[in-house]
Amino acid sequence: MNRTTIFLLLAVAFFSFGYTKDYTSNDVISKIYLLDRTLIRATPGEGIRFYDISIPTLPREIGKIAMEGNNDVAVQGHYMYADRFQDLIVFDISNPAVPIAVDTIGAVFNRIYDGGWMADDVRVVEDNSSGGFSGCNSCSQSETVNAPVAQPNRDAASAGKAGSLARFMVVGDYLYCLDGVNILVFDIKEPARPRYRNAASVSWDIETIFHSGNHLFIGAATGMYIVNIDDPNKPMLTSQFTHARTCDPVVVEGNRAYVTLRGGTPCGGFANQMDILDISDVKNPKLIHSMPLTGPYGLAVRDGIAIICDGTAGVRVVDATNPNAPQQVGQITGMIPHDVIASGNLLVITAQDGYHLYDISDIRQPKRFSTIPLP
User: Fold this and answer.
1) What is the per-residue pLDDT for 209?
2) What is the phi-psi region of residue 107: left when phi exceeds 0, alpha when psi lies from -120 to 50, beta otherwise?
């Protein structure tokens, strides 16, 4: 490994983990994924847990997978894709109480982890490669935590909903994964047998991924990248919006992009704000307004209302229908939130103390359903 490569890997290690740890407490940050009314939680260093939240006032854990080296998940139909260090593992979660590993693509991720583990430019190169099932020796699939839950019939092509801190995103028949430098492309037309297709280079500091229309919106420590996927096998950079170095997820609604910037972390910088961007011309994104915040993490947007995880300030509800003058119209305090998913009238919040479910039938006045404490 030459000196340039070593420097690059060390730089990625320093700057690319703004959403692996909460640097206000040194706690790990769980990723959340919602599939129908099954909540999936991926916690680095611990593994994956499944919760039945079909009755949001009475959530319950129904299964878990103990797995080293996992950071993210995404789902297509009843198949879940999860990273395990360098590998991509496919699980059948048609019964999430008893997940079954069914396929592996080995040595596909070039990742660096907080524990110091390093991958040295490994990559699957065959155009039609699928690793085939090689087992999951570091996965411990638990017995059912509670009685099995009857799951609704799912369209085989349906995907769930990720939080804004996600590095994995399903779009149609493709899975896109960030490895800190590249967008890795997997063909999942056969959901149980993904095929690695391509690695599209973007930037060495990419952190989060969001999909809207025929574009991927990539949050990076230095800005937002807009990537065209008209050819889903070959993502192509359309444009970039740059800002001071910070950690920054991005979500999109219509012709607006909402980017939270959080400073005081290994991502660098000191800005704490939400930027609202005009992306009506995706080749030339423009800043409309910057709203000062306390220490934001993830966010969600619905009908111009932004729900922002803002560190010690809790969850802010901001009316941004007039993007030049956004106004706070609600707030949830008493927690340090990390990310949110809004689905129908349900709001899921992951925070330092656990997972909170809220009724947002009136989005300006969220009402608490329940809390899932940390195990």
Assistant:
1) 97
2) left
